[in-house]
Predict the structure.
Amino acid sequence: MQLTYRPRRLRRTANIRRMVSETTLAVSDLIYPMFVMEGSQSYEQVSSMPGCYRYSLDILLKEVQEVAELGIPAIALFPAIDPSKKDHAGTEAYNPNALVQQTVASIKKAFPELLVFTDVALDPFTTHGHDGILSDDGVILNDETVAVLQKMAVSQAEAGADFVAPSDMMDGRIGAIRQALDSNGFEQVGILAYSAKYASAYYGPFRDALGSAPKSGDKKTYQMDPANSREALKEVELDILEGADMVMVKPALAYLDVISLIKANTTLPVAAYNVSGEYAMIKAAGQMGWIDEDKVVLETLLSMKRAGADIILTYFARQVAKQLHNQGS
Ligand code: PBG
């Protein structure tokens, strides 16, 4: 007898489709990146990221309340530093009374349950805009930078950060930061390693948000070559050996294959960063009326989950959380 297999049987009704669905996107998967700036009672929209703002701390706290009420489990904090506080070596990064440290302390006091991830990298704090210390002949000095990152991570832990997230791509920083945290009594503070972070043009709007674009050269001597995926496995392997609790692929959308590869090769949670340029493209097309923004956002984030991401950092977190609540999932 001739059997015809009919895959459409499993797509016939909404309940069947729901039952056989392989992937779900949930509010609990999301980390919302937020920008904080100096001052009070002020906020500014990031021009290349409609719907994203830099907030002064007092206003940020109100926004954070909404984020927490939406059930989003975590935020990632990035500071827009006053240019007068930047220097060649990024020393403001580990000032215990600086913007990030104060902000973390205020958020954890008001919303103790909300997880706060802090960024460990020097680019918001350096006059030259690089993630590390720049030598006179234009080289980013690895080990000198790692020593500063250790101090920076400890000062963030002191302020109350739940996870520190090194995004700098210096070699050996995960192990060094783990050691610094442990020897200062912060064994419980976790590390989300930006393990496979590529030298990407998709970061443009983020650099607008922080005024952190490199003044000279590019980041190709520390961030990864978009052509490489085996190298991503090596980076992940090293970060795990050095003590990472979670690993990340960044950007996400043009690197779904890398997410999938890493997922198949680690038991740690895998995070994906749906970066600023990915956000800007969808927002722009949505505003032009060229795509159905809400649907494209859900489909895009779902693709990251399907590829293997357990956690997604996304500027869409708030709008997606509202969408997911409205559709009752
Ligand atoms: C820098 C940093 C960048 C992002 C997060 N941390 C930009 C860069 O490496 O130049 C990008 C995030 C985004 O584009 O959304 N340490």
User: Anything to note?
Assistant: Residues 119, 121, 123, 131, 167-168, 203, 206-207, 219, 275-276 surround PBG (CB under 6 Å). DSSP finds eleven helices and twelve strands in the chain.
